Amino acid sequence: MSKINKIVLAYSxxxxxxxxxxxxxxxxxxxxxxxxxxxxxxxxxxxxRAKAKAxxxxxxxxxxxxxxxxxxxxxxxxxxxxxxxxxxxLGTSIARPLIAKRLIEIANETGADAISHGATGKGxxxxxFELGAYALKPGVQVIAPWREWDLNSREKLMAYCADHxxxxxxxxxxxxxxxxxxxxLHISYEGDLIEDPWNEPEEDMWLxxxxxxxxxxxxxxxxxxxxxxxxxxIDDKDMSPATVMEYLNKVAGENGVGRTxxxxxxxxxxxxxxxxxxxxxxxxxxxxxxxxxxxxxxxAAHLKDEMMPRYAELVYNGYxxxxxxxxxxxxxxxxxxxxxxxxxxxxxxxxxxxxxxxxEDSLFDESIATFEDDAxxxxxxxxxxxIKLNALRLRIAAKKGRNLL
Length: 405
What we know:
The chain is an alpha/beta fold and about 400 residues long. It has twelve helices and 14 strands. Among the domains are: about 5-65 and about 90-165, Rossmann fold (3-Layer(aba) Sandwich), CATH 3.40.50; about 180-295 and about 340-360, Argininosuccinate synthetase, chain A, domain 2, CATH 3.90.1260.10.
């Protein structure tokens, strides 16, 4: 392996990545470039700049990527109605390809030889970061300290900080015992009490949502407008993709919407228990399916539903930049041309309830669907031939002695 002179590090400013920055300086004798992304995690990011400067780092990137994240990653995924294993809204998964993209772009801009991240050797994120990086720059060198060093506990990391003069914030109040990841789409919780799948999460773990029991007794109604399969307005107010998500997180969270508690199958082979809050995602998926129910052709909708688990698996496993995900995206986006209209949603004590939908591109024909006099729009006698033709193979099999009771 050739000498590495400069490394771009995905840097949060927290304990792990602060140790990694110093460790990379010493272990590789390399110049470090830090990259910190604002994906809507709701934290002040400027302290990361001060910490990086304190370690002698000169090239520091802190970027607001909220709109790009929502527009180019989350919204396309929701056009697919993607949800992993029936429950996980892919909040962490969908953020990783954007971070990988910027790591590579910054490496190209700064002439760096390698990139680095703080993902452990047990999780999915190492796969997602590195598959994305290799897809975008095949020859890039990737350094994953958690797969190299022996600093495998919080105590060892804290001792390293003390030995190397790395500032560690000791915030007042109770520190969360959970490993958490947050962005516009979700906040996740792993570890501590909830490592045991039998243990119910403590109520004070949840940060974004009220408990359904404590949510308002009066429902909240929202009119959500779609164009081309994407939300463009709420209650007739035009909104950007990131603004849509910020607003829905707040309103849905106040109504107790968005909690998920699952045991998922990681790509690396193990099962893991995680808890998630995804208020905006719950509303977006429900509303999108509702507008599609009006505007999508039946067989196109059914085929799209068959493709969805594969699409979700690709996102979960880190294959956002793969040709197969792009192929599926092109097919999905083609179906969204006429997915336009408005869905009325009721939020009430943890529930997202569709109470109305309308569209100028609706395929719903009341004159045909009505239980009242349809004035000849549908000849019910036609159903007899339709049924007999579809039953033909069943009748032939029965005559041959099959399908008999």
